[in-house]
Amino acid sequence: MLNVMLEPDKFAYRVLFVLLGYLCHAVICLEPTEIDASPLNLQAHHSANTIHLSLRNSKRLRRNFSKYFSDIIAKYNNDVDGVCGLANHPSNDNNFNNAPWSKIVGGVETAPHEFPWQVFLILRKNNDESFACGGSLISERWILTAAHCLMDINLIHITLGAHDVEDENEVYQERYTSREYVIHPDWDSETLHADIALVRLPINISFSKYIHPVCLDSPSDPVVNYVKDTVVLTGWGLTSDESDGISSVLRKTIVTVITNEKCLEQYDTVITDEMICTNGEDHQGSCFGDSGGPMNFRQADGTWKQIGIVSFGSNQGCESGYANGFTRVSSFASWIQNITTQTEASNRSTSILATQQPSVMALLLLLALLSG
């Protein structure tokens, strides 16, 4: 066996390139996970409480290294402070209460990335049936959505930072898959009580102007009913009762919160204190495909807080003028806090080992080179 002695400079470069090659593979050069579930040409099929969709013309998503590297640089250049609820394009600041917005049904397109916490979900059932729901980013690892979106789900396809979900070339989109979710233990599919759930992202994501969490009430915040307050609903749901598919671009509408007593007049005993309702006047509101998305309330300091989760509407149609029902997020603030904090604490040791792995491998490679 021949022992070949490298010249010092060549040896140093060899070590450097090996280490850089490993780190590149482990940290930034990996292409995003391919998702065989591009939300293109989604065809809608109505059911009682949600909308079932079949994926058509699906394309595998792949971005080359140069584009992915450019994306990373752009995101780091657009990092924002750790403040929740920051919209990129404040909605009609001076005339918010009189904004002439239409409903999501046939509604008005948002400015790109106006609501950077909005999440697009494609849910795959065990029988391979797929449908769309909305969600909201509440932390670097968790998404808030509706429990009815996750019944009998096998796989969740997650899109963050999207405006046009059909445009796979949008620079700030990030796509993930997950099988980790938690449905509230009190969820009742008959009464629609506790229609709330959490989806766990596979990694801790980095915040930017284009991917940013919404604010939530903490368990200690005072109870507010928001009656007569104006709120903004956002989603990619159907734009009319006659639509064949969901909207490709994010839309918004402005509606008013009504009393639960008024909501009870339309929905009998279904309405509880853990729900919040909005008027359906002028045929404004959410529709199929918007389920799980946020009801956004703008606070006095200009930041946005999520106070509701799209839950249900009338079986008479989205344009019938009936009220829309939402899960009242503040009623479940303690549950959200417990799940998100306890889960992350239990996984902390694993996370620490995972973050140390590149350094350990780099050391082993270096030792192997030195011994060779």
UniProtKB/TrEMBL annotation:
The record's catalysed reaction(s) read: Selective cleavage of 103-Arg-|-Ser-104 and 124-Ile-|-Ile-125 bonds in Limulus clotting factor B to form activated factor B. Cleavage of -Pro-Arg-|-Xaa- bonds in synthetic substrates
Which CDD domains does the protein's record reference? Tryp_SPc
Quote the EC number.
3.4.21.84
What are the GO MF terms of this UniProt record?
serine-type endopeptidase activity
Broad class of enzyme this protein falls into: hydrolase
- Cite the Pfam families for this sequence: Trypsin (PF00089)
What biological processes does GO assign it?
hemolymph coagulation; proteolysis
Q: Which UniProt keywords apply?
A: Disulfide bond, Hemolymph clotting, Hydrolase, Protease, Serine protease, Signal, Sushi
Could you tell me which InterPro entries the record lists for this protein? CLIP_Serine_Protease, Peptidase_S1_PA, Peptidase_S1_PA_chymotrypsin, Peptidase_S1A, Trypsin_dom, TRYPSIN_HIS, TRYPSIN_SER
Residue ranges annotated for the Peptidase S1 domain, each copy included? 104-341
Mind telling me what this protein is named?
limulus clotting factor C
Q: Which organism is it from?
A: Daphnia sinensis
What lineage, starting at the top, does this entry show? Eukaryota, Metazoa, Ecdysozoa, Arthropoda, Crustacea
